[in-house]
From TrEMBL:
Substrate binds at N17, N86, G96, N97, N170, N202, E228, R229, G238, T239. The keyword Disulfide bond does not apply. It catalyses: (2S,6S)-2,6-diaminopimelate = meso-2,6-diaminopimelate. One of its GO terms (molecular function) is diaminopimelate epimerase activity. This is Diaminopimelate epimerase. GO terms for biological process: lysine biosynthetic process via diaminopimelate. It comes from Klenkia soli. Belongs to the diaminopimelate epimerase family. The lineage of its organism: Bacteria, Bacillati, Actinomycetota, Actinomycetes, Geodermatophilales. The record marks H172, E228 as: Could be important to modulate the pK values of the two catalytic cysteine residues.
């Protein structure tokens, strides 16, 4: 008999950026020393584990030791905390695809009222509080204002591409290029200047397909591929989509607009203003179950 009495687990994705989700509603299931980097790597292993780009622990902010430090006065307003790990076990400050899936799981697991989710709730992250909600077409999250980090370069297969550093809570280097993004070899992480990005960086290669002025402002359409810090190439990156949208608008001298972002795993929408960056897109739970004792050991 298989002993499947281990902790509850869900697998899901947002535009095919996939996550193992671990509910921890009272903070006792997955304390930091249990969910260590080695276990995260095993969970994310596509042969020996469930396979994913990252892990999301669904835990109340009150049970996360470093939540008070990152959330400050907002701690009391953030009942829930998105404890995100990359596939290599490292923590990331923010995850745009993950936080939409996180809200979906909160509601699906009965941890949050659907009405509240529709109105929007603040969720704690290591990048600060983020408002996230259910929209007409999927889920949305306001990342706040994009923060420029200066100019940089990425080296891919021996070629150098200039880029713009952008923080969405986590760091990005967005390289707008005329070289078709499909043609890049991202099996190895692009080279970057470690002095500019001491904590590492997510690198986006972006083609601007169109940009136009209309009655409701600037609209643009971009296509991106991404090599994520702590993961490698993924089929989508929500914060990367926001950074790319901001950089595409900025390159055209605009600080606001609506950008459609095509990624290998689907399509995202980003609304940029000088003070907000709202990402919208889908979130899907693929399966629910438990971890087995034989795998946990
Ligand atoms: N895929 C995520 C970003 C996950 C974190 C990133 N790898 C980092 O280390 O900053 C997204 O959808 O934003």
């Amino acid at each position: 008999m298989i002993d499947a009495s281990g902790p509850r687990v869900l697998k899901g994705h947002g535009t095919q950026n996939d996550f193992v989700v671990l509910p921890d509603p009272d903070g006792t299931v997955w304390p930091e020393d249990r969910l260590d980097a080695a276990l995260v790597r095993r969970l994310c292993d596509r042969q020996g584990g469930l396979g994913a780009d990252g892990v999301l622990r669904v835990v109340p902010s009150a049970h996360v030791p470093d939540a008070a430090g990152v959330l400050g006065d907002a701690l009391a307003d953030c009942t829930w905390f998105m404890d995100h790990r990359n596939a290599d076990g490292s923590h990331a400050e923010m995850c745009g695809n993950g936080i939409r899936l996180y809200l979906h799981v909160l509601v699906a697991e009965g941890l949050l009222d659907e009405e509240q989710a529709r109105a929007g709730v603040l969720v704690g992250t290591r990048g600060g509080p983020r408002r996230v909600g259910v929209g007409t077409d999927g889920y949305w999250v306001d990342m706040g204002a994009a923060r420029p980090l200066g100019r940089g370069e990425a080296v891919v297969a021996g070629h150098t591409y200039p880029g713009t550093g952008v923080s969405m809570g986590n760091p990005h280097l967005v390289c707008l290029t005329d070289v078709a993004v499909e043609s890049f070899d991202l099996t190895r992480a692009p080279g970057v200047d470690p002095a500019l990005f001491p904590e590492g960086v997510n690198v986006e290669l972006v083609n601007v397909l169109s940009a136009a002025e209309g009655p409701s402002g600037t609209t643009a359409h971009v296509r991106l591929r991404v090599s994520e810090r702590g993961v490698g190439e993924t089929r989508s990156c929500g914060t990367g989509a926001c950074a790319a949208a901001w950089a595409a608008l900025e390159a055209g001298g605009r600080s606001a607009g609506t950008v459609t972002v095509d990624v290998p795993g689907g399509r995202l929408a980003v609304e940029v203003t000088p003070t907000t960056t709202v990402l919208s897109g889908p979130a899907v739970v693929v399966s629910t179950g438990t971890l087995t004792r034989e795998w946990l050991g």
